[in-house]
Specification:
This protein has 143 residues and is an alpha/beta fold. Helix content is 45%, strand content 17%. The chain has one domain: Methylglyoxal synthase-like domain (Rossmann fold, 3-Layer(aba) Sandwich), CATH 3.40.50.1380.
Length: 143
């Protein structure tokens, strides 16, 4: 986990997860915001991480696949105050049984005050706020 301060702000640890039907959307989101994401550490469940890494050439710290425990690994980092922002593009109408449990991640983000985006609109707002330094307060929380 990188904890260094960069010249124009702080490094943030960003968690990303996407249900199967949203993986291409996550790839496109990460392509569009590659310049911002490249300034931070990105953590992802296995398949999402691999797909984003292939599409963007970003270095992604990959957990296990979501249904094999990746969401639990992300949850452990949230509980340890090691994740600063979560983007979880989910299928709200027809999630599959093997997909990560959204409620656990949502609950942990709420309990530990971690900004959470669950759709593209909110993800764009948070990633732009991150780039403008609006989430630098997380550095103080981590200390």
């Amino acid at each position: 986990m990188r904890k260094n301060i960069r010249k124009n702000g702080v490094f943030m640890n960003i968690g990303i997860i996407a249900h199967d039907s949203k993986k291409i959307l996550m790839q496109n989101f990460c392509i569009a915001y590659r310049g911002i994401l490249n300034k931070h550490d990105v953590y992802a469940t296995g398949t999402t991480g691999r797909l984003v890494e292939e599409a963007t050439n970003l270095t992604i710290h990959k957990y296990l696949a979501g249904h094999l425990g990746g969401e639990k690994q992300l949850g452990a980092q949230i509980e340890s105050n090691e994740i600063d922002l979560v983007i979880f593009l989910r299928e709200p109408l027809r999630p599959k049984d093997h997909e990560p449990d959204v409620n656990t991640v949502f609950q942990l983000c709420d309990v530990h005050n971690i900004p959470l985006a669950t759709n593209l609109a909110t993800a764009e707002l948070l990633i732009k706020a991150l780039d403008h330094g609006d989430l630098n307060w997380r550095e103080l929380v981590r200390m």
